[in-house]
Structures are given as C-alpha cells and as structure tokens.
Design brief:
The chain is an alpha/beta fold. The protein is built from seven helices and 13 strands. InterPro entries: Beta-lactamase_class-B_CS (IPR001018), BlaB//VIM/IMP-1 (IPR058199), Metallo-B-lactamas (IPR001279), NDM-1-like (IPR050855), RibonucZ/Hydroxyglut_hydro (IPR036866).
Length: 266
C-alpha cells in the first residue's frame, strides 16, 4: 500500500490538493537554521560593541573618545549578564552615551532590559556611564570605598552599596584585596565559569601593568591568590581591557608584578 492514500476520483479538488501538500511536507526534512557563533561581535555604535562569550553572558566593549587625550581609543570591557527576563550591567563604559547605547540594546534587541548595574572600581572607564542609568532610575551598586573615592574625584558615584562578598542575581561579587586600585572587585558567573577580572587582571598580550596611579603592587599578588582560592572553578577570564583568556591570566598578571613596574600604556 502507498504510504499516503492516493486521491480518489470522487474526492473534491480541494481535498486532493490538501492530501498532496501533506505528502510533500512529510517527505521534506526540516530546514537547518545556522546559529550565531558565540564569538560574533555586534557593533552598536562606532565605539560600542557586544560579544556573546557564553550562554546568557555578553562582553561589552566601549572606546574612549578623543577627549580622553592619551587614553583616546582605549577599549574597556564590561559584562551584560542575562537574569531571567532582565539583565545586569557590569561596569558602565567611559561616558553616559556608552551606557545609553548598551541599555537600548539590552531592552530592544536582547529583550532583557537592564534592571541593575554594578561597578568594579572608581575609575572613569567603570563609572562614566552612571548618569545614564540614574536618569532611567536603574540602581547602580558599588562598594562603600568605591563611592567614597569616586565622590572625592568628582566622578559619578554608585548610589547603592555592595558587600565584599555577595551574590548579585546570577553573579557572585568578591573583593580580593587591593591591586590595580584599592577598591577593585572581581565578578564570577558560576553557570559558565567566567570570571570578570576587570582591570585587576591583565590580558595575555599586556607587557606592563598599565595605569599604576592608584595601584598597590605590594598587595596585588596576595589579592590574586585570594581570587584563585575563592573561585577555584574559573574557566575563562575577561580582563578590563583587550581579549579574554583562561586562568593563566592570573599567572601572567603575577609575572608582570615580578618585573619592575613602569609604563602606563592602558
């Protein structure tokens, strides 16, 4: 017997057409839909982009404008972590416009509007976008020391406070001790094993420790070790600038600390 009944001469024309369509659909395999690569970058503006680094986790990159002088064009990383139907922004870009672009993308394209943000230390590549979040009523969290230092510098201040070790939605926040700055936090995404080291961790291509204006190079090595102990399951590390790497970035930062600190290239 034929796997699909052939139309009878007595059937109405519409029924015959329906049977033929069913037969064609049953014998045609479903189309293969290509997925977007996890490493594909989406450019949101000339100086703002996002890249999915793991399921539910995005790295955002903002670049300093020419107004920043020697820092002009310097890329700064941050995170957007999906949290159910919303998301959390980690570090806010160099200026309010950067944050506005990221907030719009999270709301209109990712369809997970930012419900809260946190900043990892008081420098402007972390806190510069805070006014854009304040304008939209989105709470920005930071350590008490971060708020105090940002206020003293006349820079945007996070309005809410973080403890030195706490969960924050899908993230875990930890203060390992001083390093790049006296107040630098690291942020872990347990679901994927991604650690956001911020400026506390240098990228693999870095030849020096960067901006040491507020650094504590004496305390930094012990702070790196506390990070290892607090998050032993790290698989990927996102530094504050340039490309992500593996846990070896902690060792690379330690190696740079053993050398004579000098240049402040970024």
């Amino acid at each position: 017997m034929h796997p699909f009944p052939l139309p009878s001469p007595m059937l109405p024309l519409r029924a015959c057409v329906l049977l033929l369509l069913l037969s064609a659909c049953a014998s045609t395999p479903p189309p293969v839909v290509a997925s977007t690569p996890a490493t594909e970058e989406t450019v949101l503006a000339e100086d703002v982009s996002v890249r999915r680094i793991a399921p539910g986790l995005w790295v955002h990159v903002t670049k300093a404008s020419k107004d920043w002088g020697k820092w002009s064009g310097t890329p700064a990383n941050g995170l957007i972590a999906e949290d159910g139907e919303s998301s959390i922004l980690v570090d806010t870009g160099w200026e309010p416009r950067h944050a506005e672009v990221l907030l719009t993308w999270a709301r209109d394209t990712l369809h997970r509007p930012v419900r809260a943000a946190l900043v990892t230390h008081f420098h402007m590549d972390r806190v510069g976008g805070i006014p854009a979040l304040d304008a939209q009523g989105i709470p920005v969290h930071g350590r008490e020391d971060t708020a105090r230092r940002a206020s003293a510098a006349g820079d945007p201040v996070p309005g809410q406070r973080l403890s030195d070790a706490q969960d924050f939605g899908p993230l875990s926040v930890f203060f390992p001790g001083a390093g790049h700055a006296p107040d630098n936090l690291v942020v872990f995404h347990p679901a994927t094993g991604v650690l956001y080291g911020g400026c506390f961790v240098k990228d693999a291509q870095a030849k020096d420790l960067g901006n040491l204006g507020d650094a504590d190079v004496t305390a930094w090595p012990a702070s790196l070790q506390r990070t290892r102990e607090h998050y032993p399951d790290v698989r990927v590390i996102v530094p504050g600038h340039e490309l992500p790497g593996g846990p070896e970035l902690l060792g690379h930062t330690e190696a740079l600390l053993r050398e004579a600190p000098g240049a402040t290239s970024r």
